[in-house]
Design brief:
The complex is a heterodimer.
Chain A: E1 9-13, E2 18-23, E3 31-38, E4 45-50, E5 55-56, E6 61-64, E7 70-75, E8 84-92, E9 105-110
Parallel strand pairs in A: 1-9
Antiparallel strand pairs in A: 2-7, 3-4, 3-8, 5-6, 6-7, 8-9
Chain B: E1 4-7, E2 10-13, E3 19-25, E4 32-38, E5 45-51, E6 57-58, E7 67-73, E8 76-81, E9 90-97, E10 104-106, E11 110-114
Parallel strand pairs in B: 2-11
Antiparallel strand pairs in B: 1-3, 3-8, 4-5, 4-9, 5-6, 7-8, 9-10, 9-11
Classes of the chains: A mainly beta, B mainly beta.
């Protein structure tokens, strides 16, 4: 799986949008962009994933650039409970394929 | 969403003993489960891939005789840390592939402390 690059840490004010960037310049055509987050001492939680179109669900929006070399996860109204490490992961969508975690971005939502 | 249950959430044991961690998919059949390990302030590292009814595939550097994995049914995989040592102290997390074949769902993790 291709590699992703994320900032080590970010701060966000409570109630504001949190925009988490991810670079994946070597992404291949069949790789999806997945986002997970891990709150302290818990297992990772699925957020959203996409191939090339922008995606939105009840948790977040995923914006993927047209060349697919980067993406942004948007939490529209961050709360204190969104404080976590956010992982951007590329993955082939075939059966049985695991997730390879990088360093992620530690998002701190502040009051 | 799909639920993966992991038990126990925390275990403290003496050096030399064995510890079993269970991972169950509660509302779907998981033909593949993955076991990860996470040390403090580090990312998750894949230990092994477990397929129902067959032997697990271990990542390089992970001792298969020390970390015994059993995936006897479509809803249960177990990881047994044999003859645990203090350096095995870590956060162990399982994950399972959901019915959509797209998402992986994770258990809540097990914090193992070996004294």
């Amino acid at each position: 799986d291709a590699k992703t690059t994320q900032p080590t840490s970010m701060d966000c004010a409570e109630g504001r949008a949190a925009n988490l960037p991810c670079n994946h310049s070597t992404i291949s055509g069949n790789e999806y962009v997945y986002w997970y987050r891990q709150i302290h001492s818990q297992g990772p939680q699925y957020i959203i994933h996409g191939l090339k179109n922008n995606e939105t669900n009840e948790m977040a929006s995923l914006i993927i650039t047209e060349d697919r070399k980067s993406s942004t996860l948007i939490l529209p109204h961050a709360t204190l409970r969104d404080t976590a490490v956010y992982y951007c992961i590329l993955r082939w969508n075939n059966a049985g394929n695991m997730l390879t975690f990088g360093g992620g971005t530690r998002l701190m939502v502040k009051p | 969403g799909a639920v993966v249950s992991q038990h126990p959430s925390r275990v403290i044991c003496k050096s030399g003993t064995s510890v079993k961690i269970e991972c169950r998919s509660l509302d779907f059949q998981a033909t593949t489960m993955f076991w990860y390990r996470q040390f403090p302030k580090q990312s998750l590292m894949l230990m092994a891939t477990s397929n129902e009814g067959s032997k697990a595939t271990y990542e390089q550097g992970v001792e298969k005789d020390k970390f015994l994995i059993n995936h006897a049914s479509l809803t249960l995989s177990t990881l047994t840390v044999t003859s645990a040592h203090p350096e095995d102290s870590s956060f162990y997390i399982c994950s399972a592939r959901g019915g959509t074949n797209e998402k992986l769902f994770f258990g809540s993790g097990t914090q193992l402390s070996v004294l």
